[in-house]
Amino acid sequence: MRKSYSSLNLLQERLLGLTETKGLFKSLLSNRKYLTITMPYYDYIRGKIFIEDLRDNFGEDVPYNFDMGVLLHMLYDDFLAQIKKGAKNEEIALYLIRGKEKHFKKKKQKRVMKALTKHIFEFETVEEEDEYFESQESKIAYLELRIRESEVLRGEVLIYDLEPFMKGINVTIEQLISIVYLDFIENVKSEGNSLKVQKSILAHLKRF
What we know:
Blueprint: H1 10-15, H2 24-30, E1 32-40, H3 41-58, H4 68-84, H5 89-103, E2 109-115, E3 121-127, E4 140-148, H6 149-162, H7 173-191, H8 195-207
Antiparallel strand pairs: 1-4, 2-3
Helix pairs in contact: 3-7, 4-7, 5-7
């Protein structure tokens, strides 16, 4: 098993028995966690414009607290809902592999010198962290997403189940949410301000 499937590392903690038994009050306070989601800054701005357009077109039908955090959470929730309806693991894995290759750089490898003893050294190949593709919009946006612990754990379990189909490519919950959002906003950019898409988001908001 991989060391972690998200920055919260919930699945690993439970399997190792590291989760404390919490009282009701403490459980209620800790039920929601924070994930840091990154994306190209332009795609962040495009999402904010989409929300503004939604408000302009539908006014008071759009909840006052609907923002980028809610949009990301809603898209992730919709992704999990599709999984619950019986999507095949091979298809989900292929979607994430393509999304990782499309939106993220491949890990860069470099050789570093590692000391074995005071006088003996060897070269070791290490991988640097993933980054977004370089582009003219290379500035990165960071969003703090408040989400239920159970939703993070559900995603971690999903990624664990997908590992046999992932061809050695690692995806975290944070990256999964980024992929789902970036695919959505890419559709918005290609289709323009589609009322069909806006109405679909609005209908989902009423159920969310």
